[in-house]
Write a structure and sequence with these properties.
Length: about 300
């Protein structure tokens, strides 16, 4: 690799056409300028200037190196301008969160994207462990998780608490919701349903609940947007965070069971420690915060 300091010294020498003036501009000594010139000539194996008394002219090779030096300056200037520019509507940002929170959040990002054609937002629905590892690896700029990570490189900011909702069809309004009634209907399962059941059901049915492996399963869906669909049609029940209910387009066909002991999960916004937040990320964080407030329970 060409030594960048030698190249900058030579470029300045070519511009000033004088060793003393070049040294003054670079805050160097004249012998220092001469030394950088000699090192650059040794590196390329060609003389770069032809001296005539106190003046000099560039050799053919010197012309080529001078052109390279000017080109490097332009590239560095463009790079600096790109780095220093902080336009919230230009660039790329990457976020990962649960599927239910993603369904609620993404429509709120669309108006922003529609007015910012040079902005790219990647939103990935992922399990908490994947979000954490992806954030550490640099795959994501931000993440939203339900458990505060205990990692030295991760910063966590509390967003609020999200209710776990026991969802039944609207036709179940007025029915006494017992564990036997839930077993009769059967669980519409999904990847997080068993963990949610273990959090919610033993608190409300302590004498009957024997664990998620003892639940009667009516069906299984891996598509987050379709989980409430069979319940809305009168088939079974399911358990989702409040965001999953709010994002469901037919939420009026569902009811949230009134339980003696409601249960919520925390929401945490996570990022890498020391990360300087650009204007794009600050705007995204504001939208995430507002979305979390919509579903937060006290």
């Amino acid at each position: 690799m060409i030594n960048a300091t030698w190249l900058e010294t030579f470029t300045t020498l070519c511009e000033t056409e004088h060793f003393t003036q070049a040294a003054k501009r670079l805050n160097m000594t004249q012998p220092g300028v001469s030394q950088h010139l000699r090192k650059l000539e040794q590196y390329f194996g060609y003389p770069l200037i032809s001296q005539d008394g106190k003046s000099f002219s560039l050799t053919q090779q010197g012309d080529a190196i001078f052109a390279l030096g000017l080109s490097r300056r332009r590239e560095e200037k463009q790079l600096r301008e790109t780095i220093e520019a902080d336009d919230p509507n230009i660039g790329e940002i990457r976020l990962a969160c649960s599927g239910s929170f993603a369904m609620l959040l993404y429509p709120k990002l669309l108006p922003w994207m529609n007015t910012a054609p040079n902005l790219r937002i990647d939103l990935e629905a992922a399990p908490q462990t994947n979000i954490l590892s992806g954030l550490i690896a640099g795959d994501y700029d931000l993440g939203v998780v339900s458990e505060k990570p205990n990692h030295s490189r991760i910063k966590a900011q509390a967003l609020g608490r999200e209710e776990l909702c026991l969802l039944l069809p609207k036709s179940a309004i007025g029915i006494n919701i017992t564990y036997a009634e839930l077993q009769r209907r059967g669980l519409v399962a999904h990847p997080d349903a068993y963990a949610f059941a273990d959090k919610l059901l033993p608190l409300n049915f302590p004498n009957e609940y024997l664990g998620s492996n003892a639940l009667r399963i009516r069906g299984y869906i891996n598509q987050i947007g379709q989980i409430p669909t069979p319940v809305a049609a009168g088939i079974g029940y399911t358990i989702l965070p409040r965001s999953g209910l709010e994002a469901f387009p037919h939420s009026k066909q569902l009811m949230v069971a009134k339980l003696d002991t409601p249960q919520s999960q925390n929401l945490w916004l996570i990022s890498r420690k020391g990360r300087v937040m650009s204007s794009k990320l600050k705007r995204l964080i504001q939208t995430i915060t507002e979305t979390a407030e919509q579903i937060t329970t006290i």
